[in-house]
Amino acid sequence: MIAVFARDLRLAFQGGGGAMTGVIFFLAVVATVPFGIGPDLNLLSRIGPAILWIGALLSALLTLDRLFQADRDDGTLDLLITGPTPLPLTVLSKCLALWVASGLPLVAASPLLGLFLALSPQAIGAVMATLFVGTPAITFIGAVGAAVAVALPRGGLLVSVLVLPLAIPVLIFGVSATYGAVNDPDPFLPPFMILCALTLFFGALGPVAAAAALKAGAD
C-alpha cells in the first residue's frame, strides 16, 4: 500500500501528472464569479461558501479520470488486480494519493479565495474544515465511477455523470456546516458530523465497490 501511495503521488507531481490541474480550475471558477455577480460584497460573502464548495466539487471531478486510466494504458492495472495485495487496499492507497495531490491543495487554496469573496475569518476557517473533511468522500465516490468507466471509450465524461449525483449530499452538508458556523441560529456540529460520517462511509464502501468494478472489467 505504501509503495502504491508513493508511486501515485510521485507520478501526480511529475511533469504531465496534472496534480495542479484541479487547483488551477478551482482558482479560475471562483475568481470569475465576482465578475459575473458584481461588486456587491455582502452578496459575495453570503454565497461565498457555496461558491467555494461548488468549485471544489467540480475541480475534484476533473481529476478523477486519472485514477485508473494511466495504469490501464501501461498495463499496471492488470498487475495490481492480480497482485498479492488485496485490491480494495490498493484502491484505497490510490484514492489517498489522489486526494493528497489534488484535493489537499484545494483546501490550502481556499483561504486566499475566501478573501477574494469577502468571507469573514470564521467563514474561511469553516470552509477549510469542511473541505478537509468532505473532499475525501468525493474522491472515494469518484473511485467507483472511475473504475466503472476505465474500460469505456470517453470514460472521463461518464465519471462525472456517475459521480455528481452521489456527491450532492456531500455538497449539501458541507455548505450547511459552513453556513452554520457563521449564522448564529444555524447549527454547525450536526451537519459537520454527518459530513464526517459520509466520508467514513464512502471510505469503507468506495474502495470495495471500485475493486469489484475493476475485477469485473478485467474479466
N-to-C series of helices and strands: HHHHHHHHH
- Mean pLDDT, to the nearest integer, reads 85
- How much helix, percentage-wise, in residues? over 70%
Shape call = elongated
Helical run tally: 9
Structural class: mainly alpha
What low-confidence regions span 5 or more consecutive residues with pLDDT below 50?
none
Strand content: under 5%
| Counted beta strands | 0
Cα-atom Rg, whole angstroms?
Answer: 18 Å
Distance between the termini: 23 Å
Number of domains: 1
How does the major sheet shape up?
A: none
Protein described:
With 219 residues, this protein is mainly alpha-helical. It has one domain. Helix content is 83%, strand content 0%. It has helices spanning 2-13, 21-37, 41-63, 69-74, 76-82, 87-116, 121-149, 155-182, 189-218. Helix 3 runs antiparallel to helix 6 (87-116) and helix 7 (121-149) runs parallel beside helix 9 (189-218). The model has no long low-confidence stretch (mean pLDDT 85).
Which descriptors would you attach to this protein?
elongated; 219 residues
Helices and strands, with pairings:
Layout: H1 2-13, H2 21-37, H3 41-63, H4 69-74, H5 76-82, H6 87-116, H7 121-149, H8 155-182, H9 189-218
Helix pairs in contact: 1-6, 2-3, 2-6, 3-6, 3-7, 3-8, 6-7, 6-9, 7-8, 7-9, 8-9
Write a concise synopsis of the structure shown:
The chain has 219 residues and is an all-alpha fold. The chain contains 9 helices and no strands. α6 (87-116) packs across α9.
